[in-house]
Design goal:
Blueprint (H helix, E strand, L loop, with lengths): L18 H4 L9 E5 L4 H12 L3 E6 L2 H14 L5 E5 L5 H14 L5 E4 L9 H15 L9 E4 L9
Parallel strand pairs: 1-2, 1-4, 2-3, 4-5
Helix pairs in contact: 4-5
């Protein structure tokens, strides 16, 4: 059996299914998600689809200007979208601390914490992973559902014991 066949699995989806298709029946109204790496690529697409489903999206980005461009495109396509931009550089522990403090002081709840950028920075991968863990540690008490959604996208391999 070829692992990457085009046939649909038990969920009704395959590797070629889009985020819009997978979330078609989902109403995310009342939910809040932080998406890192939201200024480009899969982070931007995740932000767009979550906003399409009614989720309040916090785009955590290093490059505010690029984040604004993505936000504008989302709001142009989805006028009712609730999208905010906050600066976050996962290669900087000071930035992680500031982001967490600012988010906590906003009084928002948190339902999803989605990481798409922790591997992309110039420092060592270990530092980026540790800073990602620190952000999760600082925000975990805000998670308002029994099982928080934390998604990681990593380019390469990472051994776990």
């Amino acid at each position: 059996m070829w692992v990457f066949s085009r046939s649909k699995g038990a969920s009704g989806f395959s590797y070629s299914s889009t985020a819009e298709q997978v979330t078609q029946e989902i109403d995310g109204s009342g939910l809040t998600a932080i998406v890192t790496g939201a200024s480009s690529g899969i982070g931007a697409e995740t932000s767009r689809v979550l906003a399409l489903r009614g989720v309040h999206v916090i785009m955590a980005v290093r490059n505010i200007a690029a984040g604004k461009d993505v936000k504008e495109a989302i709001v142009k396509e989805i006028p009712a979208a609730k999208v905010d931009i906050m600066e976050l550089d996962l290669s900087s522990l000071a930035s992680v601390r500031k982001f967490a403090a600012d988010f906590i002081s906003s009084g928002r709840s948190l339902n999803m914490l989605i990481y798409y950028s922790f591997w992309a920075y110039g420092q060592s991968k270990l530092a980026n992973i540790l800073h990602t863990c620190e952000l999760t540690r600082r925000l975990k008490f805000l998670i308002s559902i029994a099982r928080p959604v934390v998604a990681l996208a990593y380019k390469g391999s990472m051994p776990f014991n």
